[in-house]
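A protein record pairs a chain with a discrete description of its three-dimensional fold. The following entry can be read in just this way.
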Amino acid sequence: MLNDRYFDTFDMYTWEHFIPVLITLLGVYLIYIYRNKLIQSPIKYKLGVTLAGITLGLEVLVNMWRIYANAWSVSTSLPLHLCGLAVLTSSYILIRRNQAVFNATFFIMLIGATLALVTPGIQGNWGFPHFRYFQFFAVHGMLVINFAYLLFVYEYHKDFSYRYVWVNALSLLILAGLLFPINLLLDGNYLFLMAKPGPNTAFDLFGEWPWYLVNIAWAGVPVFFHAFYLPFWVRNLRHQRQKALALD
């Protein structure tokens, strides 16, 4: 699992890509179909804390591996990329049950984790069965599962409204504003503000630096955020029709 011969061997859209994605989708599906039992379960909160512990543990493990591989650096290894921040944020919400933080960051963190699963930018492009391959898909899969648990078991979907689309957009803008000077200070690329993460990722849809930052801001964020809000819009529309029928 630590053999260097697996460096730069990962191939997207092959079995080694599809299997972990399918496992993640299965986890989300199981949470959804058993949501009512989980909501009523006396260990609901303990399960949430367990998910947070697993997610944080995966982040600790990757940093231990970086130290082992002599690859840890303050310019690359702090949890300041979107998914590293999602590890901290989703774990905090699961433990503290803070819906205000969820409402302000849900789209940012979930979209980041989802795009990482769809277009994996594994640093070093480590393939199966290297540790980094397993860790990458495990941690990003856990992020998606964490947010599914928050939505359907903590029931945060009930109070999530359209205005949070723009609250999330503002949160992302503030985050970029904070991380840009940190990147300059540390010679880093957190939030991929200074360069794209590599070839064959979602960033390729938006052009080269610095234009991809502009294109993501005016096109990517509105499109992706509204696409992820669509299920909430459908739910609200259904509820309005049900109320209208009840009044009739």
User: Anything to note?
Assistant: The radius of gyration is 19 Å.
